[in-house]
Here is the input.
Amino acid sequence: MSTTPDPAAATADEAETEADTCYVGPIRIRRDQQGKTTDRRLLEWIDPRDAARRSDRTMRDSWRVLRIQSEFVAGFDAMSEVAEAVTVFGSARLHPESPEYSLGVRVGRALGEAGYAVITGGGPGAMEAANQGAHQAGAQSIGLNIELPFEQGLNPWVDLGMNFRYFFVRKTMFVKYAQAFVCLPGGMGTLDELFEALTLVQTKKVVRFPIVLVGSDFWGGLLDWMRDVLAARGMISPEDLDLLTVVDDPDDVVAAIEAATP
Ligand SMILES: CC(C)=CCNc1ncnc2c1ncn2[C@@H]1O[C@H](COP(=O)(O)O)[C@@H](O)[C@H]1O
Here is the structure.
């Protein structure tokens, strides 16, 4: 929304959805009270020539470790009861009317019907679609949300949700509690999650971890580039390409995961 809302005309609902709002951990901050997200404060550059700020940073970072620790504890506690699960990534920007969104719902449903809990980033778009499908299948529908510099709520199909301050803590949960990754079409965030998973498998930090890309028309170009440029120039081994399975049908997502599960 680029126009400034007229507070007198706005309903409570509009104020809720349109106001500049962000979360800092469990705290919700609106309008001019907004600050920086926790991740941004952690990663903030401090001029190394400024001795006073350097020393202040040392103090703050030491205490920050406790907050990071507590986020791991809360995450481990929340997820400890999750049985077999698959993490689904994909664009936050998919429109509910788009074919990719309905594909996401079908993927979530197929995974749920096969007995898997579905874990997503808890946000809109592909995440919402996969959570919807899982919920409809009666499976556990989990959303691991992240604090962002604008209002960010869990999508309505999440039955077990958590809001994380730190990206890297949340990412640990995505991998630790899932036995496979599924990527729907997506942008930077999806590619980041995909390549982090690939690196973990390639370096054998996780084993027997299928990574399934859904949508051959969307992912085909990336795979061609990986084969024709990365593998051809020796940046990856030809076998690394086998770490990825590309499918179009939700049932094939389940089949690919089951084929890789002992
Ligand atoms: C409309 C909008 C941009 C909302 C952002 N809200 C988000 N909420 C939760 N996870 C997210 C969000 N944006 C990106 N991600 C993470 O990055 C991936 C999607 O990023 P992208 O849209 O492909 O690049 C998701 O799998 C999710 O884990």
Remarks:
- The radius of gyration is 20 Å.
- The chain is about 45% helix and 15% strand.
- Residues 89-93, 121-124, 127, 145-146, 148, 152, 186-190, 193 surround ZJS (CB under 6 Å).
- The chain has one domain: 75-260.
